[in-house]
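Before relying on records like the one below, remember that each one covers exactly one chain. Contacts with other chains, cofactors or solvent are not represented anywhere in the record.
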Amino acid sequence: MDVVNAVKKAQKGDKEALLQLILAEKEAYYRLAYSYMRNEADAMDVLEEMIVKLYERIGQLKKEESFYSWSKTILVNQCKRLLKRNNRVIPLGDKPDVNNGHIGSTGISVYRQVEEQMDLQALLTHLNTDQREAIQLKYYHDLDYGSIAAMTRVSTGTVKSRIYQGLQKLRALYGRNTDEQH
Protein backbone atom coordinates (compact mmCIF):
# COMPACT_ATOMS: atom_id res chain seq x y z
CA MET A 1 0.00 0.00 0.00
CA ASP A 2 1.23 3.48 -0.86
CA VAL A 3 1.03 5.28 2.48
CA VAL A 4 1.40 8.80 1.07
CA ASN A 5 -1.48 8.38 -1.41
CA ALA A 6 -3.67 6.67 1.19
CA VAL A 7 -3.06 9.53 3.63
CA LYS A 8 -3.89 12.10 0.94
CA LYS A 9 -7.15 10.27 0.23
CA ALA A 10 -7.94 10.09 3.95
CA GLN A 11 -7.27 13.82 4.28
CA LYS A 12 -9.86 14.41 1.55
CA GLY A 13 -12.43 12.49 3.60
CA ASP A 14 -11.97 8.95 2.28
CA LYS A 15 -12.82 6.86 5.36
CA GLU A 16 -11.87 3.63 3.57
CA ALA A 17 -8.33 4.91 2.97
CA LEU A 18 -7.96 5.75 6.66
CA LEU A 19 -9.28 2.32 7.58
CA GLN A 20 -6.75 0.65 5.27
CA LEU A 21 -3.92 2.63 6.88
CA ILE A 22 -5.03 1.55 10.33
CA LEU A 23 -5.56 -2.09 9.36
CA ALA A 24 -2.08 -2.27 7.83
CA GLU A 25 -0.57 -1.71 11.29
CA LYS A 26 -3.32 -3.11 13.52
CA GLU A 27 -1.05 -5.62 15.29
CA ALA A 28 1.57 -2.98 16.06
CA TYR A 29 -1.11 -0.61 17.36
CA TYR A 30 -2.58 -3.32 19.57
CA ARG A 31 0.81 -4.38 20.98
CA LEU A 32 1.65 -0.77 21.77
CA ALA A 33 -1.72 -0.12 23.44
CA TYR A 34 -1.56 -3.37 25.39
CA SER A 35 1.99 -2.68 26.57
CA TYR A 36 0.70 0.47 28.25
CA MET A 37 -2.73 -0.68 29.40
CA ARG A 38 -2.00 -4.34 30.32
CA ASN A 39 -5.66 -5.03 29.85
CA GLU A 40 -7.37 -6.07 26.62
CA ALA A 41 -10.53 -4.04 27.22
CA ASP A 42 -8.60 -0.85 27.99
CA ALA A 43 -6.28 -1.45 25.03
CA MET A 44 -9.29 -1.74 22.73
CA ASP A 45 -10.81 1.40 24.26
CA VAL A 46 -7.72 3.49 23.57
CA LEU A 47 -7.52 2.06 20.05
CA GLU A 48 -11.08 3.21 19.42
CA GLU A 49 -10.26 6.64 20.81
CA MET A 50 -7.16 6.78 18.60
CA ILE A 51 -9.22 6.01 15.50
CA VAL A 52 -11.66 8.81 16.34
CA LYS A 53 -8.75 11.25 16.91
CA LEU A 54 -7.13 10.17 13.64
CA TYR A 55 -10.36 10.80 11.76
CA GLU A 56 -10.82 14.20 13.40
CA ARG A 57 -7.20 15.32 12.99
CA ILE A 58 -5.99 13.70 9.76
CA GLY A 59 -6.15 17.11 8.09
CA GLN A 60 -3.55 18.44 10.55
CA LEU A 61 -0.89 15.94 9.44
CA LYS A 62 1.72 17.87 7.48
CA LYS A 63 4.00 15.04 6.30
CA GLU A 64 2.01 12.15 4.86
CA GLU A 65 4.97 9.78 5.21
CA SER A 66 4.92 10.38 8.98
CA PHE A 67 1.42 8.96 9.40
CA TYR A 68 2.44 5.91 11.42
CA SER A 69 4.69 7.71 13.89
CA TRP A 70 2.04 10.44 14.22
CA SER A 71 -0.73 7.92 14.82
CA LYS A 72 1.36 6.00 17.37
CA THR A 73 2.03 9.26 19.20
CA ILE A 74 -1.71 9.84 19.39
CA LEU A 75 -2.17 6.28 20.67
CA VAL A 76 0.48 6.67 23.39
CA ASN A 77 -1.06 9.97 24.47
CA GLN A 78 -4.50 8.31 24.67
CA CYS A 79 -3.00 5.52 26.81
CA LYS A 80 -1.34 7.99 29.15
CA ARG A 81 -4.53 10.06 29.39
CA LEU A 82 -6.63 7.02 30.34
CA LEU A 83 -4.03 5.78 32.83
CA LYS A 84 -3.85 9.21 34.42
CA ARG A 85 -7.64 9.49 34.53
CA ASN A 86 -7.82 6.10 36.25
CA ASN A 87 -4.90 7.00 38.55
CA ARG A 88 -2.83 4.11 37.28
CA VAL A 89 0.87 4.09 36.55
CA ILE A 90 2.32 3.21 33.18
CA PRO A 91 3.17 -0.49 33.54
CA LEU A 92 4.99 -1.00 30.20
CA GLY A 93 6.13 -4.57 30.30
CA ASP A 94 5.15 -5.79 33.75
CA LYS A 95 4.12 -9.20 32.45
CA PRO A 96 6.15 -11.53 30.27
CA ASP A 97 4.91 -11.90 26.72
CA VAL A 98 6.26 -15.14 25.33
CA ASN A 99 7.15 -14.18 21.78
CA ASN A 100 3.54 -13.13 21.12
CA GLY A 101 2.36 -16.62 21.95
CA HIS A 102 4.55 -18.38 19.40
CA ILE A 103 7.20 -20.93 20.22
CA GLY A 104 10.30 -20.36 18.16
CA SER A 105 11.85 -23.09 16.04
CA THR A 106 15.16 -22.63 17.87
CA GLY A 107 14.29 -25.39 20.30
CA ILE A 108 14.17 -23.11 23.34
CA SER A 109 11.32 -24.20 25.55
CA VAL A 110 8.48 -21.88 26.47
CA TYR A 111 9.56 -22.13 30.09
CA ARG A 112 13.03 -20.88 29.33
CA GLN A 113 11.66 -18.01 27.25
CA VAL A 114 9.34 -17.01 30.08
CA GLU A 115 12.17 -17.26 32.58
CA GLU A 116 14.45 -15.08 30.45
CA GLN A 117 11.72 -12.50 29.97
CA MET A 118 10.96 -12.50 33.67
CA ASP A 119 14.66 -11.90 34.37
CA LEU A 120 14.64 -8.99 31.92
CA GLN A 121 11.45 -7.58 33.44
CA ALA A 122 12.98 -7.82 36.90
CA LEU A 123 16.04 -5.91 35.70
CA LEU A 124 13.86 -3.26 34.03
CA THR A 125 12.17 -2.51 37.35
CA HIS A 126 15.51 -1.08 38.55
CA LEU A 127 15.32 1.68 35.94
CA ASN A 128 13.40 4.89 36.37
CA THR A 129 10.12 5.16 34.48
CA ASP A 130 11.54 7.38 31.73
CA GLN A 131 14.45 5.03 31.01
CA ARG A 132 12.22 1.95 31.07
CA GLU A 133 9.66 3.54 28.74
CA ALA A 134 12.32 4.69 26.25
CA ILE A 135 14.05 1.29 26.20
CA GLN A 136 10.81 -0.61 25.77
CA LEU A 137 9.57 1.65 22.98
CA LYS A 138 12.92 1.31 21.22
CA TYR A 139 13.53 -2.42 21.60
CA TYR A 140 10.09 -3.97 22.16
CA HIS A 141 8.19 -1.81 19.69
CA ASP A 142 11.08 -1.10 17.31
CA LEU A 143 10.42 2.65 17.21
CA ASP A 144 13.04 5.13 16.07
CA TYR A 145 14.42 7.87 18.34
CA GLY A 146 12.36 10.57 16.63
CA SER A 147 9.09 8.71 17.15
CA ILE A 148 9.92 8.05 20.79
CA ALA A 149 10.80 11.72 21.27
CA ALA A 150 7.47 12.79 19.76
CA MET A 151 5.53 10.30 21.87
CA THR A 152 7.20 11.24 25.12
CA ARG A 153 7.42 14.95 24.29
CA VAL A 154 11.15 15.28 24.86
CA SER A 155 14.07 15.91 22.52
CA THR A 156 15.74 13.15 20.53
CA GLY A 157 18.90 13.75 22.56
CA THR A 158 16.99 13.16 25.78
CA VAL A 159 15.62 9.88 24.40
CA LYS A 160 19.11 8.75 23.40
CA SER A 161 20.43 9.71 26.82
CA ARG A 162 17.66 7.83 28.63
CA ILE A 163 18.27 4.72 26.55
CA TYR A 164 22.06 4.93 26.97
CA GLN A 165 21.89 5.48 30.72
CA GLY A 166 19.25 2.77 31.12
CA LEU A 167 21.31 0.27 29.13
CA GLN A 168 24.41 1.14 31.16
CA LYS A 169 22.48 0.47 34.37
CA LEU A 170 21.09 -2.81 32.95
CA ARG A 171 24.59 -3.94 31.96
CA ALA A 172 25.85 -3.23 35.47
CA LEU A 173 22.88 -5.03 37.04
CA TYR A 174 23.08 -7.97 34.64
CA GLY A 175 26.78 -8.41 35.34
CA ARG A 176 26.07 -8.41 39.06
CA ASN A 177 23.25 -10.96 38.62
CA THR A 178 25.39 -13.36 36.58
CA ASP A 179 28.20 -13.10 39.15
CA GLU A 180 25.74 -14.04 41.92
CA GLN A 181 24.63 -17.16 40.03
CA HIS A 182 28.16 -18.60 39.67
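The CA atoms of residues 18 and 97 lie 30 Å apart.
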